[in-house]
Amino acid sequence: MSGAEFEQVKDFMSKAITAFNISSDPKTSVVGDRIAVVSHALPGFKAGTRKRPVKEEFDFVTYSSKDRIRRHIKESLQQLNGEAAVGYAIQWTIANIFSAAPNPRSLKVIIIISAGKTSQWDKEMLKKISLQAKCQGYALFAISLGKSYDRNELEELASTPLEQHLVQLGRIHKPELDYVMRFLKPFIRFLRIEKSNYPPEELTAKCIRLLLHS
Question: How distant, in Å, are the alpha carbons of 60, 132, 207, 210 from that of 214?
Fold first, then answer.
C-alpha cells in the first residue's frame, strides 16, 4: 500500500466513525458505542517473540467524542510496514483491549482492514483465533484492499453471512472506499437488530468441539 493509498484509508476510517453513536462517558456508562484502534503489521514482530503484534492507537475509554477520534486518526495514525500477522493482532486485541475494558458490552465487533494476505506463519493462528472469537460472540467484519488476497483466508476470518461481513476491493481508491462506507452503515444497523445472532447457529457444533478441547 502506497503512502497516498494509506491516506485514503485514513480518510475512510475517519468517515466511518460517523456511523457510530459514541458514548460521552466511555469509562462508566453502559450505553453508547466505544471505539478502539490498533495498527497491525508492526515491524519486528514474529511469532514466539515477546514483542506485541500491534501498535495500540487508543483503547475504548480514551475518547468520548467523534471529533477527538477523527483527529487522532488524521494526525497520529501512521503506516506500519512490518509483516502481516492478523491472527496474532486479533488475539492481542481481545486479550488486551476488550478484556481490559470496564463495563463490557454484549455486542462486540472487530473490524479488520487488511491489504494483502497474512504471513504464512500467522495462518494457523488466524484460523484458530477467528473461530474462538466467533464462538465468544464477536462479530468479525473484514475489509480486504488490493489484488493480493486469499479468498479462503478471508472467508475463515469474517463472520457469516459473508455478504454482510466481508468486502473485497481490488483497488484502494476513493470510489471503492465510498462503496465500503455505504456498506458499513447498514452493517451497523444490522448489528443493533441482530446482536443475539453471534455466534450463529451454524457454528454451534464447532464451538462445542472447541470448548471440549480447550
Answer: 28, 10, 10, 6
